[in-house]
Known about the structure:
nine-stranded antiparallel β-sheet; 7 helices; alpha+beta
Amino acid sequence: MFRIILVLIAIVFSASMGLVVFGEVRTFPAGSLDRSLGDMLPRAVDFGWQERDLPLGPTESVIDRSERLLRFDDFVFREFRRGSQYFTVYVAYWEPGKMPRRLVNMHNPDLCWVLGGWVCTYRVRGKPLQVGDVVLVPAQFGTYEMRGHEMHTYFWHMVDGQPYEHQGLSVGRQIRNFLLTPFTGNFTAKSEQFFIRVTSSDPIDFILREEMAEAVFKSLAQSGLVREKQG
């Protein structure tokens, strides 16, 4: 019986590796993004706000390392400010075949920020969210704190228009996902992907009543983020 189990595992592993190799050499479809993410976002001045683009890190070396690690095809990191209120929008995009979705999903606040010294003080998964008349895909939400400074953030990882959250944290589950992903994820689990993060140091629900934020989310409908528009 034990020998039969080993044979079955070997067969599944071989088939899995074969499909992974096939996925690496196959031709992927072109991405759907037809203009830069920066151009997709609305102009802040049209809503009485100010805007500025932010770097990925505090130094050139950090920026370069981040870009080489993330390997995105496009990104925008923009701050919208009106008086003392502000929020930032970070959007990264990967064309089909560029990055495995489990690797993209690892670059979220629960990992990146926490490893950088932040402490997660509050966490909600699948939080319903509506901004103006726009109903969004349920959000991942967290509050993170470091040295008395607090950040509130909504974030989404969208894969081919659907939300995705990688759960392979244990060794056993990582092995299981490695064996089964080629059969459940279009051979290589490599698809068109968006990672979207909206952050503020103020309690972030203030954006739910702001036309500026509503326009931002509408502009990102191509990612699959917008579920419906009321009325």
